[in-house]
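quick one: cytidine-5'-monophosphate bound model?
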Amino acid sequence: MNDHTAANPVFVALDTADARQARAWAEAVRPHVGGIKLGLEFFVANGGDGVRALAALGLPVFLDLKFHDIPNTVAGAVRAAAGLGMAMLNVHAGGGRAMIEAAVAAAGEAGANRPRVLAVTVLTSLDAGDLAAIGQATTPSNQVRRLALLAQDSGADGVVCSPAEVAMLRQTCGPNFLLVVPGIRPAGAATGDQKRMLDPAGARAAGADVLVIGRPITAASDPAAAAAAIAASLAGTRP
Ligand code: C5P
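yep, here:
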C-alpha cells in the first residue's frame, strides 16, 4: 500500500500463467490502476522471479496465495513474500490465531515496507451445505464475521471479502480494517462466474478500501481504456 493505492483503489487481477501476457496487461493499465494482484496460476507457472519482474514495474503487488499451514511454515512463506517486495499478501483465517499471529510477526520483520497481511474468511464458493459438511454448523455470513474478528484480534491488517459482506464487515471491524473486495463489475459488464457483485463506486460506498478487478479489464478489447473508465467512475469517492 502506498500513495498510489490511496489515489486509485483498483488492483487488477492478472490471472494468467503467461508471464508475457501478464506484463503486457500490467504495462497497458499501469497509469489507470493502483496495483496488481498475482495469484496461484501466475505464481505456480512463474515463481518468485516472475513476481519480481512484474513488481519491478513499480506498482504495489498483492500476492494472493492464501497461505494455510502450521505457523512456522506460514511465517517462512510470508518472509519470502516480503523479500519479493509485496504490498499485500493473504492467509486463510481458518489456520487459526497462532498462524495469523505468526504471519503478522513475520511481515513485521520487514519494517516500514512490511506487507499488509489479509485474511481470507470463507471462500465464496462455499454455501451453508458445504460448511455443514466440514463441520461448521452456521451460515456463511456468521462464519465470515467470526473469522474476520479472529483475524483482526490476531493482528491482521484486513480481510478479503465479497461485495455481499463488505458493509457488514465495515460495521463489525471498524474504519481502520482493510477490506479488499473482488467480485466487482462495472455497470453493463459481463458477469462471468461472479454471482454477487457491486459496481466499483458501489463497493467503495459500502466500505471497500481496495477493489480487485480482473476480467472486466483484462478481457476487454482495450484493457487500458477499460481501466481508465473504471478509474474515472471512482473519481471523487472517498480515499
Ligand atoms: O476476473 P474477476 O474480476 O472475476 O477476478 C477476480 C479476482 O479475485 C480473481 O483473481 C479471483 O481469483 C479473485 N477472487 C474472487 N472471489 C473471491 C476471492 C478472490 O473472485 N471470493
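The chain has a mean pLDDT of 94.
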